[in-house]
TrEMBL record:
<keyword id="KW-0805">Transcription regulation</keyword>
<keyword id="KW-0731">Sigma factor</keyword>
<protein>
    <submittedName>
        <fullName>RNA polymerase sigma factor</fullName>
    </submittedName>
</protein>
<dbReference type="InterPro" id="IPR014284">
    <property type="entry name" value="RNA_pol_sigma-70_dom"/>
</dbReference>
<dbReference type="InterPro" id="IPR013249">
    <property type="entry name" value="RNA_pol_sigma70_r4_t2"/>
</dbReference>
<dbReference type="InterPro" id="IPR013324">
    <property type="entry name" value="RNA_pol_sigma_r3/r4-like"/>
</dbReference>
<comment type="similarity">
    <text>Belongs to the sigma-70 factor family. ECF subfamily.</text>
</comment>
<dbReference type="Pfam" id="PF04542">
    <property type="entry name" value="Sigma70_r2"/>
</dbReference>
<feature type="domain" description="RNA polymerase sigma factor 70 region 4 type 2">
    <location>
        <begin position="114"/>
        <end position="165"/>
    </location>
</feature>
<feature type="domain" description="RNA polymerase sigma-70 region 2">
    <location>
        <begin position="9"/>
        <end position="75"/>
    </location>
</feature>
<dbReference type="GO" id="GO:0003677">
    <property type="term" value="F:DNA binding"/>
</dbReference>
<dbReference type="GO" id="GO:0006352">
    <property type="term" value="P:DNA-templated transcription initiation"/>
</dbReference>
<dbReference type="InterPro" id="IPR007627">
    <property type="entry name" value="RNA_pol_sigma70_r2"/>
</dbReference>
<keyword id="KW-0804">Transcription</keyword>
<dbReference type="GO" id="GO:0016987">
    <property type="term" value="F:sigma factor activity"/>
</dbReference>
<dbReference type="Pfam" id="PF08281">
    <property type="entry name" value="Sigma70_r4_2"/>
</dbReference>
<dbReference type="InterPro" id="IPR039425">
    <property type="entry name" value="RNA_pol_sigma-70-like"/>
</dbReference>
Length: 182
């Protein structure tokens, strides 16, 4: 370690530790976080001499490292479960599969068909508005220009069209298995 780095460490070590402790609320995690911070500081030691406010620079590194750890833990926890000692299922069955199953594909096609049929029962102005927004994926401003109305009118039409479509889907007793009131 060079002399400048040693000086920075001696001066700010306690400050970084207390900041880490405040962020993690756990002494062991604070020590781990502090170690990561100092590893990053050592990695970028060449830039220390160019930094005007060392304390602010160290605080930024600490905060960013904490955020990165937090995001990493959140991502990991989405895919991990509290595992019992013995698993009754193979571990690979617990890993989420991003592929859409055949049943899901068929269901999606069926629902799309049903929604399109109900859309055709709407007034033409509502059909067009829904089509432009959801199928063609035009912005509200583009739809406003196309239909020669204000953006507020487009928003109102979208709201009314969705409400009417939902009403129609819920009223159809044949679709009771597919459409759940929300």
């Amino acid at each position: 370690m060079n002399e400048m780095l040693t000086k920075v460490y001696d001066e700010y070590n306690r400050y970084i530790y207390h900041l880490c402790l405040k962020l993690t609320r756990n002494t062991l995690e604070a020590e781990d976080l502090m170690q990561e911070v100092w590893v990053k500081v050592v990695r970028y030691e060449a830039t220390i001499e160019q930094v005007d406010h060392v304390k602010a620079w160290l605080t930024t590194i600490t905060m960013n490292t904490f955020r990165d750890r937090y995001r990493k833990n959140v991502r990991r926890s989405k895919y991990m479960m509290n595992q019992p000692e013995q698993l009754d299922v193979p571990i690979l069955d617990l890993v989420p599969n991003n592929e859409v199953s055949t049943e899901e594909q068929v269901e999606k096609v069926e629902i799309t068909k049903i929604v399109q049929e109900k859309m055709h029962e709407l007034d033409a102005i509502y059909q067009k508005t829904l089509w432009y927004f959801y199928v063609d994926q035009y912005s509200l401003a583009e739809i406003s220009t196309l239909m020669k109305v204000s953006i507020g009118t487009v928003k109102s039409r979208l709201f009314r069209a969705k409400a009417r479509l939902k009403e129609m889907l819920l009223a159809d007793h044949k679709l009771a298995d597919v459409v759940l009131p929300a």
